[in-house]
Amino acid sequence: MCRHLAFLGPDEPLGRLLTEPPHSLYHQAWAPRQQRYGTVNADGFGVGWYADGDPVPARYRRAGPIWADLSFADLARVVRSGALLAAVRDATMAGADAEAAAAPFAAERWLFSHNGAVTGWPGSLAGTARTLPAEDLLSLQARSDSALLWALVLARLRAGDTAPQALSDTVLEVAAAAPGSRLNLLLTDGRTVTATAWGDTLWFLADQGRRAVAVASEPYDDDPRWHRVPDRTLLTATRQDVLLTPLKDLSRKDPAGDPASAPAEEPRT
Known about the structure:
Blueprint: E1 3-13, H1 14-18, H2 25-28, E2 45-51, E3 54-62, H3 70-78, E4 80-88, E5 105-107, E6 110-117, H4 126-129, H5 134-138, H6 145-158, H7 163-177, E7 182-188, E8 193-197, E9 203-207, E10 212-216, E11 227-228, E12 233-237, E13 242-246, H8 247-250, E14 266-268
Antiparallel strand pairs: 1-4, 1-10, 2-3, 2-4, 5-6, 6-7, 7-8, 8-12, 9-10, 9-11, 12-13, 13-14
Helix pairs in contact: 6-7
Pathway: Amino-acid biosynthesis; ergothioneine biosynthesis
Organism: Streptomyces andamanensis
Enzyme class: hydrolase
C-alpha cells in the first residue's frame, strides 16, 4: 500500500526527485518495482516541502492519481526545496475522505506518511485510540489507519518525545495491538528524516559529497549506492549521516527499568 519518499539536501526542483528519475515516485504510482501489496497507487498523492526561512511546510495534495493532475508537472518544474516528503496512495479502504486522507499529513513543522496497513482496522486499534485525548480524536484529518497513526505519533511529539522515540513507540504499540500490520512510517521536520521499516520495503541513498540523503519505499533510479534497510529497523538521517537501529532493541529495559541504549546502531554516510 502506497509508496513514499523523503529528501534532505541542496535546493533543487521537486521534479528532479519526483518525476524525472526513471523509476520516480510519479512512475511508481502505476508501475512500482517492489510493491508487495497492491499494484497501482491511484487513490491520491501529495508532496510537502520546506522553503528557506520558514519552518512550516507547504503541501500540495489531491484525491486522484498523480498522472491525472496536469498542474503538478508545472509545480514540480519550478518549485525548489532542500527538504521534502511525498507519497502516492493505494487506499486500505476505498472512499476514506479523499484528499484529506492523502499523505503527507502535517502539523506545525512536521510532515508524516504511512506505507502499509493496520490489520483488523478499525476495531484492532479501538483500545489504542482511547489513549488519545478526545480533542485529538475529534480532529483526525481522515477516517483512515494512517491518520490515526499520525495522531498517535503527533501526541508523543507534543509530549516531548524525540522523533525516533515517537515513531518506535507507536510502531511497537500498534504492532502489539494489531499483529501482522505493516508499519513503514516516515517523518521529517525539514532537518532530519526518521523512518521505520516494518513489513514493507525501505531504502536510503546517502551522498556525502552533496550532503544529501533520500529515504524511499524503493529506489527511484539504479544508482548502486542505494542501501536496503532491514525489516524491523528504525532509520534516522540528516544531511551528514544515517543511523540504523533494530527496533527490538528500543523496547528493551535495563535492570533499573530505564530504556537501554541501542547497541546495534549502524552509521552510513
